[in-house]
Amino acid sequence: MIRIRNGIRIECLQMESKLIPILVFVAVYGLISFEVLNKAVAALLGVMVLIILRVTDVHTAAGNIDFETIMLLLGMMAIVAVLRKTGVFAMLSVKIAKLTEGSPLKILVLFSLVTACTSAFLDNVTTVLIMVPMVIEITRGMGLDPKIYVITQAMVSNIGGTATLIGDPPNVIIGSKVGLTFNQFAAYLAVPVIVSFTGVLFYCWLTNRERFRPIDTNLAKLFSVQLLLEKIEYDSLNIPIDRNFLLTSLGGLGMALLLFVTQTITGLTPGVTALSVAMILFVITAVDVEEMLREIDWSTLLFFSGLFILVGILEEKGFIEWIARSIFLRIGHNPYAMVLTVLWVSGIVSGFIDNIPFTITMIPVVRLMLESQAVPHNVLWWALSLGACMGGNLTMIGASASIVSCGTAKKYGYPITFFEFMRTSAIATIISLVLSSLILIVYMLILP
Predict the structure, then answer these.
(1) How far apart are CA 184 and CA 179, in angstroms?
(2) DSSP structure string for 116-132
(3) What are the tens digits of pLDDT across the range 286-297?
(4) How far apart are CA 149 and CA 135, in angstroms?
(5) d(CA 171, CA 40)
(6) pTM value?
(7) How far, CA to CA in Å, does 347 sit from each of 101, 155, 191, 362, 385?
(8) CB neighbour list of residue 134: distance below 8 Å, 6 or more residues apart
(9) What's the CA gap between 102 and 31, in Å, rounded?
């Protein structure tokens, strides 16, 4: 009887040790999803609860943090902070505005191109914070409704960020956790990103053709646009630019990108590269370091750290493996089914919950799926990346860039509702996922 009781007690303790982290993880998700607490506070509170309940200890918890990811994010945030100080972003926005010549379609296409390309190398939130106010100023100055332009900028920012290792947080996580290089991301994701960008932009134009008609026949609008462009040109002449500071900062960004591309030659990881270049810029540009540090999104870095710990504990307790075996591995060993399942599940789920914790959760699941060795050449990782990044376009809360874009529009007096955003974004997301599916299938056919 004593043995049975001891056995039952041990089994109960084991069940508790597995159940508690699951409950804490779900609670943290809930607090983040319903915005009850700041996401960093919610994640770290969950970690503290698990440590206090002795589900894990401090050293084990710290060991779950992927410092390569943290270094990469910190380094890129610091580089962007220095670049913002140079005034280059304001100058770039002014140049684009002049190139549009007041044409509604040119505004859509040119700003979308610049937003997508910039998002591939800079933080999506930083990109839309720069581009969206400019788009609103130009469109409302022309008597146009800025909403469709704002929604489009948010979507193409998320699509463009998918193209590179540093473009979107899910890619940063996948790259550092799996060991994929900057060149690999660019080589395999450039095609689906370009195709998806073209498809989404065409859809936005097709469903809003009346809003993008030329204004040549309206003399009043032509006159107001001319005045607006002259004002923009005047403002551009008054933007203070320190050329030495600008050239040094751009040189630092160029050096970082060069080292990303030559990673296989230098052996320097993206995290080491980004943080090293950022610290060198801090030294040689003589910027106010404390001011630059205030520009860094410490909340996001702490959020990442807390989530790494929470997911690491779930993995230790076998919960991740259980998910993989009971859900994803049931689809069998058909490689096409595996790839499309990861893509579409990632795309749909990321539209409603933050794609960062979802990606962290999915990495060990995909690793288990890869044990079947039925999927060639990292295609499952590309499916996860495309789904997690592009799926954020499904709803207004699916990606940080969308939330910030809509918040900026509201500040300017153009509130965008949840369903107003989704009316455009839902179909656009399905288009991008369908196009990505076709390209992934082609990869499956042609890759060894």
Answers:
(1) 10
(2) HHHHTTS-HHHHHHHHH
(3) 889 999 999 888
(4) 7
(5) 20
(6) 0.79
(7) 37, 14, 18, 12, 9
(8) 93, 94, 96, 97, 111
(9) 44
